[in-house]
Amino acid sequence: MLAFIVRRLLQSIVVMLVVALVAFSLFNFVGDPINNMVGQEATTEQRAELRERLGLNDPIPVQFLRFVGNAAQGEFGISYRTARPVADLIAERLPATVELAVTSAAFALTLGIVLGVYSALNRYGWTSRFVMTASLIGVSLPTFLIGILLIWIFAVNLQWLPSYGRGEVVDLGGWRTGFLTLSGLQALILPAVTLGLYQLTLIMRLVRAEMLEVLRTDYIKFARARGLSNRAVNFGHALKNTLVPVITITGLQLGSIIAFAIITETVFQWPGVGLLFIIAIRFVDIPVMAAYLILIALFFVIINLIVDLLYYLVDPRLRVETPAARTAA
Amino acid sequence: MQSRKLLMSLVLGSGLAVASAAQAETLRWASQGDALTLDPHAQNEGPTNTMSLHLHDPLVMRDNDMAIEPGLATSWEAVEETVWEFEIREGVTFHDGSDFTAEDVAFSLNRAGTEPSDFRNYISSIEEVEVVDDTTVHIHTSGPNPILPQQLTQISMMSKAWAEENDVETAQDYASGEENYAVRNAMGTGPYKLESREGDVRTVLVRNDDYWGMDRFPMEVERIVYTPISSDSTRVAALLSGELDFVLDPPVQDLERLEEEGDINIEQGEENRTIFLGLNLREEDSEYDNVEGENPMADKSVREAMYHAIDADTIQRVVMRGRSVPTGTIAPPFINGYPEELDERLAFDQERARELLADAGYEDGFEVTLHCPNDRYINDEAICQAVAGMLGQVGVTVDLNSQTRSLHFQDIGNRETGFYLLGWGVPTFDSEYVFNYLYHTDDGQRGSWNATGFSNDRMDELVQQMGTEVDEERRNEMIAEAWELAQSELVYIPIHLQVLNWATREGVTVPLRADNQPHIATATFND
User: Fold this and answer.
1) pLDDT score of A318
2) Which of A173, B228, B278, B372 qualifies as a cystine partner to B402, CB 3.0-4.6 A?
3) Which class would CATH give A97-274?
4) Between B1, B10, B242, which is nearest A182 by CB?
5) Is B199 on the interface with A (CB under 8 A)?
6) For B33-36, which contacts have Cβ atoms below 8 Å and span 24 or more sequence positions?
7) How far from chain centre, in Å, is Cα B379?
8) How far apart are CA B206 and CA B193, in angstroms?
9) pLDDT computed for residue A16 by the predictor
10) Is B299 helix (H, G, I), strand (E, B) or coil?
11) How many CB pairs under 8 A join A and B?
12) Sign of the C-alpha dihedral computed for residues B247, B251, B255 and B258 taken in this order
C-alpha cells in the first residue's frame, strides 16, 4: 500500500514536470511581455535591458530549470502585470474558483441524479422526453453561449440576478467566501448553473442508462417477486448499484470543472483563478501562466490519485495484481 | 436539496434588491481592464494613469477640452532657457492630513524620473528639481524644453514622508521579484481617496471632502466603484440591467442597440489617436513580399499606388459603422503643429493606382504580408481585411497575418514586418512626440517605433532641434517643415482617427475627453 502511494506520487511529479515543460515551450509563442510592461516611450535599449534582467533572452531549457528550481522552493516570482507575488494572487483567487466549482458540482450531481432516476423510471412520460431533449441542448451548446443566454434572461430582462462579479464577500481568515451574504449567493447562481449544465446532462444520461441496465437485471426481478415496495426496489437496490460509476465520473469531472471554469469565469467576470489566467494570457504574464498550469496539473494528479486509492480500497483484486496496471486512469 | 430550495427562494425573493437603482451619489463604472498598479509612477498606461490621477494631482492639469490649466502648481514660467519656475498651490493637504509642499514636488518628480519608473523617458529632460522655498520649485532641464508643462500633466505628486515611511522611494521594479507597498496603497492629494482595492475585482474610491478643488469642480460623485469587466457582452449586459452607471468602452457593434434603449446615453467624440499603415521603405530585399532582389515599397510611386487604392470612406462607413473620422495625416487634430492644410487624403482612384504600379514595373502586382493586431484597436482586424480586399483589386495581393497584440508589437519591435497596422496617441499634445518615435531614424534612443526604416537627415535634424527650441514661432516652423517632409515621403498611409464612445445611464453625465481618461470630479448627476 505504502509503496503504491509512493510510486504514484513519484509519477505525479514527473507528470507535473512534463506539464511545466510543455507550458514553457508554449510560452515561446505567446509573444513578448515587454511591450505590455513598459510605456510606449521606452527606448529600444531599455526594452532590451529589461528583457535581459527578466531572463527572457535565455534559452527555454534554462528558463524552465530556473522556474522549477524556484517553484521547488515555493517561489513563483511576481506577476509581470500587477507586480504582486504570484502565490498571493492565486491564493486570493482560489476560493472563488473552489466555491464555484463545488457549487456547480453539487448542482449537477443532485439534479442529475434526480432527473436521471426520474427519466429512467418514467421512460415514456412527456416530462422525461422533454428532459432528455433539453439535455441535448446542454451537451451541445458551448458554455459561453449558455452564460450569455442566462445573463440575457435573468440579468437584463428579468433583472433578478447580477450579471457579473461575486457580490459581497466575507473574509474568513484569508478565505473570502461568497456563501455568507445574500448578494454573494445571488451572484453564484448563474455561473454555477452555466458551469454545471454540461456535467448535469452527463450525469443525468449516465444515471439513466445505468439505471435502465440495472432495472433489467435478475436481482431486481427477484426483488419485485419478493414483494418489495417500488420505493425499496428503485432506490434501495437499483440506484445504489447505479452510483458506483457515477461517483467515479464525478470525481474525475471535478478536475475538469475547475479547468473549464476559465470560460464561465470570463463570461461572468468571476474573480477566480481561471479569469486570472485569461487576463495573464492577454498580457503575456508568464509567471502567472506557469503557476496556473502547474496548479491545474496538480489538481488533476491529486484527484486521480484519490480515485486510484479508492479503487485500491474497494477492489481487492488490485492488492494482488501489480498496481502499475492501473496507472492509465 | 435543502440548500437548493434555499437558493431558489433567495432568487425569487431578492430580485428587487439587485435591480434597485444605485444611490444617486455613487458612480458604478466599468471598463475592460483594471489599473495595473496604484503606484503612480510604475506604469505609464491608460487605465493606470486614470486611476492615479483620481488619487493624486499633477502640477499641471488638462481640462476636458484638453487645454492646460493649473493643478497643484498655480503658475509657471520659463525663467531661464533651461529653468522652469513653478509656484506651488498653498494650503493643500494629502489624504492623511499632512501638508503638501515643494519638497513633495521635488521628490515626486525625481521618483518619476529615475529607474525603474515608466515615466523616466517621458520627462527625461529634467535634470534637477531645486526647492527654492516652500512654494517655489525650479526645474532644471538638460536643454531648453518648451513643452515641459504639457509633459507634467501625467506626473502624479505623492507624499514624500509616506513614501519614506513605507520604503517606496522608487517605483516598483518588475525584475526585483518583490511587491512594494505602493502597488496596493497610495497617498496623494487627489479628489478621491482610496477606500478599498481588490485588483481585477473592485476598487472603491470616496470623495476627498478636503480637496482643494471642491469649489472648482462639480465633485458630485461621492463614491466611485470601479469594476473591470473583461467580456464585452457582459459589460453591455451589466449596463442594460442597471448594474452600472458608466461604461468607458462599450463594443462598437452594440452601440446602435444601446442607443435605442431609452435610458442609455452614448457620448461620442474624436479620440487623440490615429490608425494608419506602416510601410517598409528599406532598399534591401524584404522577406515579407514575393518580389526577389528588391523591396517594391521602397519605390515611392508604389506607396502612392497603395494609398490611392485604399478607400477610407468605405472603411469608415462599413467597417466602423460611421464611427471614425478618415484622415490624411497621422497627426490627431488636437496636437500642436497639426498640419491642417496637409490633412487631405490622396483620392481613392483604382485606375491611378494600377497606372502607378505599372509605371513602377509591377503591372502584375506583387504579394505582401500585412501584420495586424486583433485585440488592440477598434475593429483592427476588420480594417486590415478591408485593406487587403482593396489592395487586391489593384493587383497587390495581401497575405493577412493578424495576431494578438503581444505578438504584433513584438514583430514591430523586432522590425520583423514589412507592412503593418499601428495606432498612435499623442499624450503630450505636441507634434514632436510623433516625429520622435515614428519618423526619427531608429538609433536605439529615438525612433523606437519607426519600423519603416525611414531615415532622413533633415528630419532627424529637425526633430532634435524642435526638442530644444524655446521660441514658439521658430519651433512651429520646424514642425511645419517636418510635416511637409513626412507627408511628401508617404512613410505611413493614414486611415482614420479613432472615435470614443462613452456610455452612461440616463441621468449621469461624464464629460468626454479626447485622452480617454475620464475626470470624475467633473461628472454630474442630473436627476
Assistant:
1) 62
2) B372
3) mainly alpha
4) B10
5) yes
6) B33/B228, B33/B230, B34/B199, B34/B200, B34/B203, B34/B226, B34/B228, B35/B203, B36/A81, B36/A82, B36/A83
7) 17
8) 5
9) 87
10) coil
11) 188
12) negative
